[in-house]
Design goal:
- By secondary structure, this protein is an alpha/beta fold.
- The protein is about 35% helix and about 20% strand.
- The protein folds into 2 domains: about 180 residues, Vaccinia Virus protein VP39 (Rossmann fold); about 70 residues, Helicase, Ruva Protein, domain 3 (Orthogonal Bundle), CATH 1.10.8.
Length: about 270
């Protein structure tokens, strides 16, 4: 926003501006940032959350892609030593250079719904932040936190929860935004597990396994491990792995909890 004039939302960037002040404060409160914290805000837009964070935390880093919105933020916060604005796509930004101490930083954002999953996994790259609070589409929040065995449980659920604890905090109604979106929203908290539960190599192996399994989620786990072009494990090896873990070869991917996928990846070597 510049000179009090509102910047129009761009559908191409998935923009819907949060105008409900009570919800703004509730989201910021959920982050629990203190005066000693470094905070990264993704997609600050018109500054709905920014105005509650600037001056309340030690350092605030903003990453905004939109030209007009970045200009408005620069006009408003450019003179502050405790606020740094980066006009770029968060998927292209090296967060390790942007943040003074990435592993102790907190992250907040009302992220574009059309690239939610890439942003989440970008934020969960090492070194991982201390805490992440995001506004996402309600359906995505349900998938991240889905119970094992449910329809919503899938690769996103497992991918996030093998490295972080996930919590669905509260729903945000469509009336809290302008323009009013067609979908419901929700706030999720992702808290990376410390110490790191997996090495980089183990993590890569688990994600490859999980991605392949849920691509064929209607098939039995034995067939997936044996026949999926990204896996193709030798029959004896996969049977030994399944037997050692007490997993039936007739099981389907949605019946395996994240820790079972981790154990399976380890058993398969």
């Amino acid at each position: 926003m510049r000179g009090g004039e509102a910047v129009r939302a761009k559908k191409s960037l998935g923009q819907n501006f949060l105008v409900d002040a009570n919800i703004q404060r509730k989201i910021v409160d959920a982050l629990g940032a203190s005066a000693d914290d470094e905070v990264l805000e993704i997609g600050p837009g018109r500054g709905a959350l920014t105005r509650h964070l600037a001056g309340a935390v030690r350092r605030l880093a903003l990453v905004e892609l939109d030209d007009g919105l970045a200009k408005g933020l620069a006009d408003r916060y450019g003179g502050r030593s405790d606020v740094d604005l980066v006009h770029a796509d968060v998927l292209d930004v090296d967060l390790t250079r942007l943040l003074e101490r990435p592993e102790t930083a907190r992250v907040i954002g009302n992220i574009p719904y059309n690239i939610t999953t890439p942003i989440i996994f970008r934020l969960l790259e090492r070194p991982r932040p201390l805490d992440i609070v995001l506004m996402v589409q309600a359906e995505v929040a349900d998938r991240i936190t889905a119970e094992v065995g449910t329809k919503a449980y899938g690769a996103l659920s497992v991918g996030v929860r093998t490295v972080a604890r996930a919590e669905r905090l509260f729903k945000v109604g469509r009336g809290a935004f302008r323009p009013v979106p067609r979908v419901e929203s929700a706030i999720v908290r992702l808290t990376p597990i410390r110490p790191e539960p997996l090495t980089k190599e183990e993590e890569s192996h688990v994600r490859r396994l999980v991605k392949a399994c849920f691509q064929w989620r209607r098939k039995q786990i034995r067939k997936i491990l044996r026949d999926h072009p990204e896996l193709r494990y030798e029959v004896r090896k996969l049977e030994e792995a399944l037997d050692s873990l007490g997993i039936s070869g007739e099981s389907r991917p949605e019946t395996l909890a994240p820790e079972r996928f981790v154990a399976l990846a380890e058993a398969l070597g």
